[in-house]
Write a structure and sequence with these properties.
The protein is an alpha/beta fold. It is 22% helix and 25% strand. The strands form four sheets. It has a four-stranded mixed beta sheet with strand order 3-6-5-7. Strands 1-2 form a two-stranded parallel sheet. Strands 4-8 form a two-stranded antiparallel sheet. The two termini are 24 Å apart.
C-alpha cells in the first residue's frame, strides 16, 4: 500500500526527525512543522490520495489482525465509509457529555481512529475539520440529508479498547487496539505537559471558533 504520513511536530522535535527518515518509494512524508490538527491533517492526506479508497488511522493504534479486506468487501458504489460508529451530539461532543444533550437527537459519527473511506464520496460532504471530533461536520451533513444508515457502515469488532465514555466502555478488541485519550493517548500526553488538548480554535457548525482547551473530556483520539 502507498502510505501518507502527515506529521504535525515542530521542526527539531524527535518525532519530526524520526518521521522524516521514513520517506521512501511507498511512503510519502508531509512535514508540516507545526500542529496542523487532526482533522486538517486527515483532509490534507485525503486530498493527496490517488486511489479509490483510503484507510485512515491514528498513530496510537496497534493492529493485531487486519480487518481491511473485510471492510473493503462491505463497500458499495455509494458507501461513504466503513468503521466504528459513535453516538454523537449534533454539536460534535459525545452524546451525553453536555447537559443540553438531554432530549436532543443524536447522530452516528464515523470515528477517525481507524476507518475506510471511499474518496469520491468524501468530497460530496463536509470536509474533516479542526475539532475534538474532526469528522463531526461530515457526520452532521450526512445525518441532515438522512443518509447515515444508507452510506455509512459499522464494522463489527471495532471500537475503543480502553477507557470509558458516556456511550461506550473500552474492551479488548480482536482487530485494532486503540489507546484512548484518557489512558495515555495523544490528548493525555499534552495534558501532562500542561498544554491544551488541541491547539488553536475549533471549527463549529456555524464557523464560529470555540476554544478547545477546556470543553472536551473522554472524546479526543
Amino acid at each position: 500500500m502507498q502510505i501518507i504520513i502527515i506529521d504535525g511536530s515542530p521542526v527539531g522535535d524527535p518525532c519530526y526527525n524520526y518521521v522524516s527518515s521514513l520517506a521512501s518509494d511507498i511512503t510519502t512524508v508531509v512535514l508540516c512543522g507545526y500542529n496542523i490538527g487532526h482533522g486538517r491533517g486527515m483532509d490534507l492526506g485525503i486530498r493527496m490520495v490517488k486511489t479509490k479508497f483510503v484507510l485512515i488511522f491514528d498513530s496510537d493504534i496497534v493492529m493485531d489482525k487486519s480487518p481491511v479486506e473485510k471492510m473493503l468487501a462491505m463497500m458499495e458504489e455509494d458507501t461513504y465509509g466503513v468503521g466504528y460508529l459513535e453516538r454523537t451530539g449534533l454539536d460534535g461532543f459525545e452524546y451525553g457529555a453536555q447537559p443540553h444533550h438531554a432530549g436532543q437527537e443524536m447522530m452516528m459519527m464515523l470515528h477517525p481512529y481507524f476507518h475506510l473511506l471511499q474518496v469520491s464520496e468524501y468530497f460530496k460532504f463536509h470536509r474533516y475539520v479542526h475539532h475534538g471530533a474532526p469528522c463531526f461536520l461530515a457526520a452532521l451533513d450526512i445525518h441532515r440529508k438522512g443518509l447515515t444508515s444508507n452510506i455509512i457502515k459499522e464494522f463489527p469488532g471495532l471500537g475503543h479498547s480502553s477507557g470509558k465514555g458516556w456511550c461506550w466502555t473500552g474492551e479488548p478488541r480482536e482487530y485494532i487496539q486503540h489507546l484512548h485519550a484518557r489512558n495515555g493517548g495523544t490528548c493525555e500526553a499534552r495534558r501532562l505537559k500542561g498544554l491544551p488538548q488541541i491547539e488553536g480554535n475549533w471549527e463549529t457548525e456555524h464557523g464560529t471558533p470555540q476554544n478547545s482547551s477546556i470543553r472536551t473530556r473522554r472524546f479526543l483520539k
